[in-house]
């Protein structure tokens, strides 16, 4: 089946062979800016015990950018993604993450070597992601248990979690903690603080229900606005979907539902004021996100106040993960294809080179959507991620049908994804070269042809006529 990229290549080759200049768009224009693959947060200190590189980044850490705000986040995502692809990370990479944990069980965003833990700097996002990473790797039950205990101690009576202890809860942090609880084998519906609401009830407090405008129902707000109107937030809604669907990282393909996600059913003329039931939460959120993806050309748009409505790669990737976990892989497919065709710059062309958080998120997204992270739009994401940190101990296990290529192998058939691959660029170049040679040959023959041969006899036409008439 011809993909859009192949059709574009064919059109380009055909136009050039006909002697007409053409330059079709191969993919949507990349935005000027996009949301990073890591969460925002305040600065914090940290102890890695690992030597630093010449750039000041610890040698065991993935990525070359400043880790102040996302060190633990990006390390955890990288370890989850590499483990999913059966790439065994270096001991130094795992040790770096373990060494970042504080004595009370929490993780900060990052703390420099030798710096003491500061309780106020520990955050739920880093801790939740570290718990998922160590749960996926296995063999680290003690730090996982300590991390879960810290998370449970930070839950408020309304069932929610804040980014840093002592601040108001938000949908993103609550969703990430729900992911961590599930990864550690706990039931968020039975996780409550001091007899308060459960984690699922806390998550539901951010979802817009029947009291909202029809086009907003099912989406999640980041935080409710006291005394003011609330509007859904794309990243909050995308990350909440994975949690409300009962999933965590890495996402495995769930049972596929044949029908599209169901929008929240609200009785006509009745403005309900209660929370969305947990049984309906994922479907309602999936329906809202599916609508936003369709409206945005199969990607979510950045909705940060004051920012331009450019493509939001991070939210789009999380939406794919959530939709797959909710059983709506068909609704996730087009967004996954869009990421394959446009995500390389987000993953690999930041100011510090490869962004390990973005790359790992795309690896997880590709596999969840049953695409190939070794050839995702022509990019070997697994190789990019592995190269951004310490050398792995081992690559994919031989014979695994999903590990179609070892890291570092050549890019192969673009049919596996809808992105435009380097192989097709080479093919188009060869076609262009052949076409140019044919045109030059024809022109020379016409110029050198004797005048008497300009009107060949009927008997000679079949042998001496133009090549296209033979």
Give the helices and strands, then pairings.
Layout: H1 4-17, H2 71-84, H3 91-100, H4 124-137, H5 141-154, H6 171-183, H7 199-204, H8 234-244, H9 278-295, H10 313-325, H11 329-342, H12 344-348, H13 356-368, H14 381-387, H15 422-448, H16 461-464
Helix pairs in contact: 1-15, 2-3, 2-4, 2-13, 4-5, 4-6, 6-8, 8-9, 8-10, 10-11, 10-13, 13-14
What does this structure look like?
Helices cover 42% and strands 0% of the residues. It has 470 residues and is mainly α. The chain has a single domain, classed as Glycosyltransferase. Helix 13 runs antiparallel to helix 14 (381-387). It is globular. The two termini are 32 Å apart. This is Squalene cyclase C-terminal domain-containing protein. Keywords: Membrane, Metal-binding, Signal, Transmembrane, Transmembrane helix. Residues 1-27 form the signal peptide. InterPro entries: SQ_cyclase_C, Terpenoid_cyclase/PrenylTrfase.
